[in-house]
Design goal:
homodimer, alpha/beta, 7-stranded parallel beta sheet, globular
Chain lengths: ~300, ~300
């Protein structure tokens, strides 16, 4: 991934129909909008409810996105699952379709596993795919996965697969960990992405790559702008403004709140739907969210809408 | 499930070949041995490394077990996964094959989800399968899944699906929770299984159904005997003896230790293999395990072996 493509990625929210099946058309038009706003497409992330989708659904969606003309080099699908087999199936298809890379969770069911076991997992996946085009971005999100990717594990994986294991998304929320990853690995070309735009400026100033952030679904242009102009004089001001919007969303369950906002500003109520075990935002909570966003003069311009 | 079939179930460990694919023949012969020792087959449990298998692998294994003559009414496969689609696929096949029931994890990727979201998940699964033969046993294992099945959720599910949601496995390790489940729901015919034979006698005395326990893979006959003879005078003595063996295994990583013991007593070293992210027991740890087991005069009689 070159910097010219931007350094901000969105874990794209997934729209569902009334039978809870993925709404391909709506997803395609949302992806087109996100690209027009300057962010890349980390589809099948945590905020995409990716782990509520089957691997078959994910393969089909990825194929549909590319078939619809979404540029594959702007796609970084999440492919990590609990089983080696599913991770290989989806990652291999992503490589074949020309995706920029894959964002790979560790296997997250068994807890307290060793770095040796996680190394073997990633190693087995990479060797089964056996494709020089594969670019793996590790996905460290201990608050959700409850299985961590330690610095020694990152080091061992880079050493074993230097042209394949090329980056990490750090969603620990712990800046000292992001800083340590940058300090240790960025110089050799390893891409460290913060898991929230709260850390975007700090990440870029420290020598990191950018961010992959939930709220890039709703505030993409402003986040992408800081990603581009972080060396300008108003960077801290931009960061402060991003933080205010982020702080609003953080007061709610993130995924339902992202969908509520997207539904509200597009007029497309189908966006509100989540797959169980997630539940849509209540009417009260939604009103509270919109009122807080109004106070920030928040908008989602040019969002695709049928004007419902 | 009638009591005549026994009230002790084993989450059957899964043997893998050198390419990490499931070894069907070895699994079939281990299942036959477990049945001969008096325990039922909760295949695809936590201790089966079920979450390191794809749903396709699980469907194929289940079909192979039934085709090999394993009685379906002695099978209670684990079928719960993060996605509704995968849970439905495997559960439906289990029903079609005539399995006694299915043991269903909650979706375990997203944390901090609500009872409402979990209710919708189970509800959606049950209504999609839409088969009067379906028998769901809920699987409460907060130390691993990190998503809990609360008493109010159990109550709501029983009320909504009284002939379908018929039991629970409580692997919380918290006896007060097991006791509360029994006190609240056993009288109406709801089956409460403890997740360890440590609680077998207490569960049966309180009016619960039995246990589904990892160590029933290695100590099946003795556990099944207490399950049958718990009203006899020597029941407390039997329980104490089971606890001593259990305590040995609890000093090690459970799944690798179960496989090490099975490999050791059968002479079949292929048993040692685990799928990443799990790692087999080290040689040192294995020696320690066998020496502790020898001190307990532990044996696994009549274990299938090719005499390697």
């Amino acid at each position: 991934m070159s910097m010219s493509q931007g350094n901000v990625w969105s874990p794209v929210i997934t729209p569902f129909g009334s039978d809870l099946s993925p709404d391909v058309e709506r997803l395609v038009s949302h992806c087109r909008w996100l690209i027009s706003q300057g962010v890349g497409l980390a589809v099948f992330g945590t905020n995409s409810e990716a782990n509520s989708l089957t691997v078959v659904e994910k393969v089909e969606l990825l194929e549909a996105l590319v078939a619809a003309g979404i540029p594959a080099d702007r796609l970084m699908p999440g492919t990590g699952s609990c089983s080696i087999g599913d991770t290989v199936t989806l990652s291999r298809r992503a490589v074949e379709l020309g995706c920029a890379g894959v964002l790979m969770l560790p296997p997250f069911y068994y807890k307290g596993v060793s770095d040796e076991g996680l190394f073997r997992y990633y190693s087995e996946v990479i060797e089964r795919i056996d494709d020089a085009r594969l670019r793996v971005y590790l996905y460290h999100i201990p608050p959700v996965a409850q299985v961590s990717i330690s610095l020694p594990l990152v080091e061992r994986l880079i050493k074993a697969y230097p042209s394949t294991v090329v980056g990490i998304k750090d969603s620990s929320g712990d800046w000292s960990n992001t800083q340590a990853l940058i300090d240790k690995f960025s110089e050799q070309g390893f891409h460290v992405y913060a898991g929230s735009e709260r850390f975007l400026l700090a990440t870029l100033r420290a020598g990191g790559a950018g961010c992959i952030s939930a709220t890039a679904n709703v505030n993409p242009e402003a986040i992408a702008r800081l990603g581009k102009t972080w060396q300008q004089a108003d960077a801290d001001e931009q960061q402060a403004s991003l933080n205010r919007v982020r702080a609003v969303f953080e007061q709610f369950q993130m995924i339902p709140a992202l969908k509520a906002a997207t539904g509200h500003y597009s007029g497309e109520k189908d966006w509100l739907r989540t797959r169980p075990p997630l539940v849509e935002l209540s009417a009260d909570k939604s009103r509270e969210l919109f009122s807080l966003l109004d106070a920030e003069h928040f908008a989602m311009p040019d969002l695709p809408s049928t004007g419902v």
